Amino acid sequence: METKLYTREECYDSERIEKLAGHYREILTLLGEDPQREGLLKSPERIAKAMAFLTRGYTQDPHEILRSAMFKEEYKQMVLVKDIQLYSLCEHHMLPFYGKAHVAYIPNGQITGLSKVARVVECYARRLQVQERLTVQIRDCIQEALNPMGVAVVIEASHMCMQMRGVEKQGSSTTTSAFTGIFLKDPRTREEFMNLIR
């Protein structure tokens, strides 16, 4: 089934929120709760709005985010934005995972606004995700939009689906990485990046 990409207005559209809220009322009932009790009366609508917010990345075009602030520049050294906080939802259990992303690229005649790199991370993170795909999506978006000499992405995250349920291993974290271009071909460039994010 194809996923509908909602516009920003549709994301918080009252009809859509009410439909989501109806489903959450049913979920509360199936869990053994009474959605009519005082503490839960407004919870379905609150949950619906929260989920619309937490998945708002579906309403955004990450390539357009980068293209909205592209500039010609002959700088050919590494551009690194590190410690970008991210919050996402695991698509398997819809439980949060959170951590930080480190993103670098080496320009090839075009740069983008530094905040746009963080916005791309946010855009992909605010969808139902797995960390591995999130890492690759960020890398590929920057590579496709800017056509740099190379892109490097490392994400370090903790997953509540491992900490709250399942194996219940507290303090565990997962690191993923993805590289293109010179970061793949030149070990010295990759090592420089890894040293800078340590």
Task: Set out the fold topology.
Elements: H1 8-11, H2 14-30, H3 43-54, H4 62-67, E1 70-72, E2 79-90, E3 96-106, E4 110-112, H5 114-125, E5 128-129, H6 131-146, E6 150-159, H7 160-163, E7 174-179, H8 182-185, H9 187-197
Helix pairs in contact: 2-3, 5-6
Explain this structure:
- There is one protein chain.
- Helices cover 43% and strands 24% of the residues.
- The chain is an alpha+beta fold and 198 residues long.
- The strands form two sheets. It has a five-stranded mixed beta sheet with strand order 5-2-3-6-7, with helices on both faces. The protein has a two-stranded antiparallel sheet with strand order 1-4.
- A hairpin with a 5-residue loop joins strand 2 and strand 3.
- Helix 2 packs across helix 3 and helix 5 runs antiparallel to helix 6.
- The longest helix is centred in the N-terminal third of the chain and has 17 residues.
- The radius of gyration is 20 Å and the shape is elongated.
- The relative contact order is 0.13.
Keywords:
two-stranded antiparallel sheet, elongated, alpha+beta, 198 residues, five-stranded mixed beta sheet, 43% helix
Helix content: 40-55%
Give the oligomer, counting copies of the same chain as homo and different chains as hetero. Answer: single chain
Structural class of the secondary structure composition? alpha+beta
Largest sheet: 5 strands, mixed
Mean pLDDT across every amino acid position = 93
The percentage of residues in β strands lies in 15-25%
Rg, Cα atoms, Å: 20 Å
Q: Please write the string of helix (H) and strand (E) elements.
A: HHHHEEEEHEHEHEHH
Give the terminus-to-terminus CA distance. 41 Å
Low-confidence stretches: none
Helix run count: 9
Write out the strand line-up for the largest beta sheet, numbering strands in chain order.
5-2-3-6-7
Approximate shape: elongated
Number of separate strands: 7
